[in-house]
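Researcher: Next entry in the queue.
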Amino acid sequence: MKKILKIIGIAIVLLFALIGFVLTAGYIAIRLGWTNTPGMIDNQRQAFLDGGNNVAGQMASVIDSSSQNSWDNTPEWFTLKAAILKDQVVINRAATTSGVPARLIVENLIAEQLRFYYDDRASYEKFFAPLKILGSETQFSWGVMGIKEATAVNIEKNITATTSPFYLGNQYQHLLDFQSTSINQERFTRMTNQDDHYYSYLYAGLYIHQVEHQWLTSGFDISQKPDVVATLYNIGFANSHPHMGAQSGGAAIPLGTVVWSFGSLAKSFYDSNELVNEFPR
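Model: Structure for this entry, 281 residues:
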């Protein structure tokens, strides 16, 4: 019996030693970049930043052109369309307040929500489809627009920082004022409110307006380029570098058998006749 227990003890020690070795090796590999491979998201982001003058840009274009209007005749789209119509008034109010066309907000909402619907099939089938509601994130990204906390904080800073290239003017400075001293909690609550999505749309509208302003003052008007606007929405402030030749890119969004880039999916909606009466181009 003692011999058996000794063997079991040694086996347990060796097992934990092996687990420790694997975890350590994995950590070292990640830190040294040995696991880094250029996936679709990385390639499309780089294509956007480079102005589309590389192979990655060509790949993004193939994905865009091969997937035209494959999303608008699916059960997921009809669910999402019904859910968006419930928020028509609040979306238009947020758009007017933030100073951007509502359709630019909605194009990003659609890309975020379709990705959410396809990624979380259990929730889609149990809640979103039967109730015709939007998915609201509460972890890495927040609310129905999928805005990260760091992005929300930067949006808030940009509306008051007069020297920021994203600064929009005095009329926007108090749009996001907090009503309590618990700013982090209030920010989280306002953006993840299941009953009122106004702040999700307002933050999104302000982000769009801020990057459009940055590009315009640098000599590049992207207000009529919904794919570029959506790509910037997806890749964030840190990657917003005004330049000539920007194109669609961003995260890969698999919808069934078709893979879209974030920017191309948003633009496909923008150019379509879906919800065009409610949110005109």
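Model: The two ends are 80 Å apart (CA to CA).
Researcher: Noted, moving on.
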